[in-house]
Amino acid sequence: MQLGMIGLGRMGANMVMRLLRAGHECVVYDRDPKAIQTLVDQGAEGATDMADLCAKLAPPRNIWMMVPAGVVDAVISDVSPHLAAGDTLIDGGNSNYRDDLKHAERLRPEGIHFIDCGTSGGVWGLERGYCLMIGGDDEAVERLDPIFAALAPGAGEIERTHGRSGPASRSEQGYLHCGPNGAGHFVKMVHNGIEYALMAAYAEGFNLLRHAGVGRNDHEVDAETAPLSNPEHYQYDIPVAEVAEVWRRGSVVASWLLDLTANALLEDPDLKGFGGRVSDSGEGRWTCLAAIETGTPAPLLTTALFERFSSRGEADFANQILSAMRYQFGGHHEKPKD
Ligand SMILES: O=C(CO)[C@H](O)[C@H](O)COP(=O)(O)O
């Protein structure tokens, strides 16, 4: 099947590679000519601009946009004049599902289908496949089935869920038509909200393991920590990277995020390459907003998001206020930082 790809960053380029390997035909466009050339060398056809991209695709065209959420509007404006009724535009980035509704509405009078597709797999997707969460009308989603099937991981080695039988469903192959426009990105948004909380849980647990030796004489004592009731209880020098490794095998908390954590700890046990400023791209915030608007309790996801803000210094003034109040009511002086 033929597919146009706009946006050949880490995700877009690897997705094209995976589609080429599966025998699909890809016409590719990016603002960076070097990114286009790299894929032309791998068997894709390059396009010089949006008009050329559309001219090289046989109708009905299928064009996948793999661009940052903030530029999707502009890309639609650039490409849509070259499209015709029956064509389909797919937004595979991390867009807000509310924007999908606007985009679908905007393209509908022209007879152009719009699909939102939450895409998870990151830089590992080329080999492992991408988990796809799809929103859009049945006709367009059905037509693109061979593309989704090639990008998705497939049933693979994963043990079948107890009670499932017959041919593997799409969800068992790693892709799902979640509903009409917006549903794909809504599911991806919640997926990323969960991702924040899982990441935070692992981070807190491993940090606690690192503190298991605070009672040892050779341990640097933090002047701020209240005296231990019994230092004997905190005498451990736990090999944190090894714990990550052992938990990967048969434990209840085994997961791909843990696999990646084990990689990171093996490469750099003290994580000296990271300062700990944790960015966020929006999905976590949208998840929390959806939780508030629907009245759905989501305290873990929300806390994990707020922790990211704190990691960037956004709690500093609140902490200064705490110190100031403590001084005001008790004359307690703040101890200097190390
Ligand atoms: O979608 C993803 C993983 O599933 C992306 O890696 C995502 O952009 C990461 O989100 P954030 O920058 O908010 O941590």
From TrEMBL:
PROSITE patterns the record matches: 3_HYDROXYISOBUT_DH
- Record pathway: Carbohydrate degradation; pentose phosphate pathway
Protein known as: Decarboxylating 6-phosphogluconate dehydrogenase
Q: Which GO terms describe its molecular function?
A: NADP binding; phosphogluconate dehydrogenase (decarboxylating) activity
Q: Does the keyword Lipid biosynthesis apply?
A: no
**From what superkingdom does this record's organism come?**
Bacteria
Per UniProt, which keywords does this protein have?
Gluconate utilization, Oxidoreductase
Q: Which InterPro entries match?
A: 3-OH-isobutyrate_DH-rel_CS, 6-PGluconate_DH-like_C_sf, 6DGDH_YqeC, 6PGD_dom2, 6PGDH_C, 6PGDH_NADP-bd, NAD(P)-bd_dom_sf, Pgluconate_DH
Gene Ontology terms: biological process: D-gluconate metabolic process; organic acid catabolic process; pentose-phosphate shunt
Q: Where is the 6-phosphogluconate dehydrogenase C-terminal domain?
A: 184-337
* Family classification: Belongs to the 6-phosphogluconate dehydrogenase family.
One of this protein's Pfam families, by short name? NAD_binding_2
From the UniProt record, report the name of the gene that encodes this protein: gnd
Q: What stretches pass through the bilayer?
A: none
